[in-house]
Amino acid sequence: xxxxxxxxxxxxxxxxxxxxxxxxxxxxxxxxxxxxxxxxxxxxxxxxxxxxxxxxxxxxxxxxxxxxxxxxxxxxxxxxxxxxxxxxxxxxxxxxxx
Length: 98
What we know:
By secondary structure, the chain is mainly beta. Helix content is 0%, strand content 60%. The chain contains no helices and five strands. The chain has a five-stranded antiparallel sheet, with no helix packed on it.
């Protein structure tokens, strides 16, 4: 299931290499996410990491200044027990040159 969400991108990181003989290649986007204040025990926001494909996607962020507001195209995926959002693409809300 794909959807559009708005968010503040706070940062991005990548990794392409091996750990204990297992190959990893990923890009993760760090997005400010509101805390659930409905129970009265939390206020403000936290940072959540979302997968954004391989490490090559890191290059899309090099000319941007952080943090910035963006429209994110995301997909909801599951492993049968839990769900998570994966970023498929993003569009900064306004021109943002580094």
